[in-house]
């Protein structure tokens, strides 16, 4: 819920000072929240997995997917290109790693 709240707060369109302040605060909170989502997966850059993908809830996977979609949208809008490109690459690795769990569940012999 917080992810959607912060995302929508960054899209506020009224030009007054109060809305501008809300947009700035939402953008800062969104950036911090996305960093918090990425923190448990920092070992992926060195190919070190610090999270047991077998025990992660599907709800966490949805959160990761939604955060990746937000970062991708920010890339499309040319917002913090270098930083968001790095985050998008990390999310791609995370989703690829998480996908292995779901693919393994559908294998039958």
Strand-helix topology:
Layout: H1 2-9, H2 17-38, H3 58-76, H4 81-105
Overview of the structural elements:
The structure is a single chain. With 109 residues, this protein is mostly helical. The chain has one domain (2-105). It contains 4 helices and no strands. The protein has helices at residues 2-9, 17-38, 58-76, 81-105. The longest helix has 25 residues, at 81-105. The radius of gyration is 16 Å and the shape is elongated. It starts with a helix and ends with a helix. The model has no long low-confidence stretch (mean pLDDT 79).
- Count of strand segments: 0
Order of helices and strands: HHHH
Number of helices: 4
State the share of residues found in helices, binned by percent.
55-70%
Structural class computed from helices and strand pairing: mainly alpha
Q: N- to C-terminal separation?
A: 40 Å
User: What low-confidence regions span 5 or more consecutive residues with pLDDT below 50?
Assistant: none
Give the radius of gyration.
16 Å
- How many domain units? 1
Q: β content, as a range?
A: under 5%
Descriptive terms for the model:
109 residues; mainly alpha; 4 helices; 0% strand
Q: In short, what is this structure?
A:
This protein has helices spanning 2-9, 17-38, 58-76, 81-105. With 109 residues, it is mainly alpha-helical.
């Amino acid at each position: 819920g917080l992810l959607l709240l912060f995302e929508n707060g960054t899209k506020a369109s009224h030009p007054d000072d109060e809305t501008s302040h809300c947009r700035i605060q939402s953008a800062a909170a969104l950036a911090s929240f996305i960093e918090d989502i990425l923190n448990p997966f920092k070992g992926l850059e060195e190919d070190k997995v610090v999270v047991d993908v077998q025990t992660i809830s599907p709800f966490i996977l949805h959160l990761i997917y939604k955060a990746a979609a937000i970062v991708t949208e920010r890339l499309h809008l040319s917002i913090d290109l270098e930083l968001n490109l790095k985050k998008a690459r990390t999310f791609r690795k995370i989703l690829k790693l998480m996908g292995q769990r779901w693919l393994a569940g559908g294998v039958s012999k």
